[in-house]
Design goal:
This protein is mainly β. The protein has six helices and 34 strands. Helix 1 crosses helix 4. The structure holds copper (II) ion.
Length: about 500
């Protein structure tokens, strides 16, 4: 009897370990020596021409040595890998002039930005090789840590994987008045987290496994095994999960507490003390970390809390799921530490009763009409695979809407909506807490969860050009886990062309 129970337990444990191993292949990055100085992307304030702030972003191929002695072919923006941190200010008019020096079509999307559909850089604003495209808009949103990346349908994942990603930080009166660390690269640090697979010859290996690309080598700002020297005082890290598919559970190796101060779309109301931040692809978080104790700490990703991961870590025994990112080395401070602000922002809660309608968004599940899902197809949203010639949803300008995002499938999907920042209304019926009270444009919906988000559609009607909503696991998005919505002044008076596009 005892023996049967033990055998059963062993089978369960081994199955758990096997599942774990399949999901998190070859993640064995422990034991880094952190010998490389963390690269900090250039920041750009552009140049003001006729009252408009202009930026030039040139996408082109390059070579970068990430691993010692290995030359990796890359694509970057104004350089071999990643792009400049674009600094914008609320109320300004900007022109972002994007030149494509690659030999294939791409686009450039301003993730989290409140911009007209024609300026959004979706699959509908293609930039052919050797040409340029200009996104012109007014910066019409609060201070927030946004980012930019290509969005060509079917090849987003590959373009991002090669290196086309940059940060786009917005400031406003509030962010400038707050007593926060603001010296770029000194106490206000961009942290772009990416996992990569390398071939033996050093080339990026875009290998789709379990439906997406998971790397075994961590890069921060394109730096492998990095360290960062800071003063022994409070510093600000602006984290972006710029990975194609991997979800991180960010903390420090000494489990120190820190304060989260911002989410995707802006500041939280007050600093939130924690020792973990979950970041799915596309999500951002700003944290304040106090190094006045002078102790070094390694920024890392922990395994997801859960029995499978605990067993997996134990059995596989290779530090699987523990991903070391960056060693932070404090030096004696020259300046006194910033105090922790008591208040950061005012977020008025949008009430469910203010919503004109609720739209269901079912992630994964069967295809409409029972067509074959499979390699390169799906998972679907609402049973449908992305069709650039189909309009899936039509939103009335001025309405507030609830989108009920339900994930009946077997894996987590980060759901991203263009144009808006939304609030989480509830998750599995429970009101949000902690960082989920902040403004978001991407929300992680684990298997089995239902998340209701609420958002106002205040500006930018366009009866022709749609915005996107999609899973931000880029290989899912590229396989069609994406839909299109129009924002129009009167959904009852659509052109016959648009009406036809709705019913494809
Ligand atoms: Cu997905």
């Amino acid at each position: 009897m005892k023996r049967t129970a033990l055998g059963l337990l062993m089978i369960v444990l081994l199955a758990g370990a096997t599942c774990y191993w399949l999901t998190f292949i070859r993640v064995t990055n422990g034991g880094l020596t952190f010998e490389n100085k963390l690269l900090i992307p250039e920041q750009s304030f552009g140049t003001v021409v006729d009252g408009r702030r202009q930026f030039h972003l040139t996408v082109g191929e390059g070579i970068r040595e990430f691993l010692p002695g290995k030359r990796t072919p890359t694509v970057g923006v104004n350089g071999p890998y990643l792009g400049p941190t674009v600094r914008l200010r609320r109320g300004e008019d900007v022109d972002l002039i994007v030149r494509n020096n690659m030999d294939e079509m791409t686009t450039m999307h301003w993730h989290g930005a409140h911009v007209p559909a024609r300026m959004d850089g979706t699959p509908h604003q293609s930039i052919q090789p050797g040409t340029a495209w200009t996104a012109s808009f007014e910066v019409a949103q609060q201070a927030a840590p946004l980012w930019y990346h290509p969005h060509p349908h079917g090849t987003t994942g590959r373009h991002v994987y090669r290196g086309v990603t940059g940060l786009m930080w917005i400031d406003d009166d509030n962010s400038e008045a707050l007593d926060l660390p603001k010296t770029y690269g000194v106490d206000d640090i961009p942290i772009v987290i990416q996992d990569r697979l390398f071939d033996d010859d050093g080339a990026f290996d875009f290998a789709i496994n379990q439906g997406a690309v998971y790397g075994d080598t961590m890069l921060v700002n394109g730096t492998w095994s990095p360290f960062l020297q800071v003063e022994s005082r409070r510093i600000r890290l602006r984290l972006l999960n710029g990975s194609n598919a991997r979800i991180y559970y960010i903390g420090f190796d000494d489990n120190r507490a820190f304060h989260q101060i911002a989410t995707d779309g802006g500041f939280l109301e007050a600093p939130l003390q924690t020792n973990r931040v979950t970041l799915a692809p596309g999500e951002r978080a700003e944290i304040l970390v106090d190094f006045s104790d002078g102790a070094e700490a390694v920024l890392k990703s922990y395994p997801e809390a859960g029995w499978l991961d605990t067993i997996g870590s134990f059995f596989v025994g290779l530090g699987t799921g523990h991903l070391e990112l960056l060693k932070i080395v404090p030096r004696p401070a020259k300046r006194v530490s910033h105090a922790l602000p008591e208040r950061l922002n005012t977020i008025s809660r949008i009430k469910a009763a203010d919503a004109a309608k609720t739209r269901p968004m079912v992630l994964g599940g069967p295809l409409r009409g029972g067509g074959p899902a499979g390699p390169g197809v799906g998972p679907p949203i609402n049973g449908k695979i992305m069709d650039m010639g189909r309009i899936d949803e039509v939103v009335r300008l001025g309405d507030t809407e609830i989108w009920e995002v339900r994930n009946p499938g077997g894996q987590a999907h980060p759901f991203h909506v263009h144009l808006v920042q939304f609030q989480i209304l509830d998750r599995n019926g429970q009101p949000p807490a902690g960082a989920e009270l902040g403004w978001k444009d991407t929300v992680l919906v684990p298997a089995g969860d239902t998340v209701r988000v609420i958002m106002p559609f205040e500006r930018y009607a366009d009866p022709e050009v749609p915005y996107m909503y999609h899973c931000h696991i880029m290989e899912h998005e590229d396989a069609g886990m994406m839909g299109q919505f129009l924002v129009v002044e009167d959904p009852e008076r659509l052109s016959s062309r648009t009406r036809n596009l709705q019913h494809r």
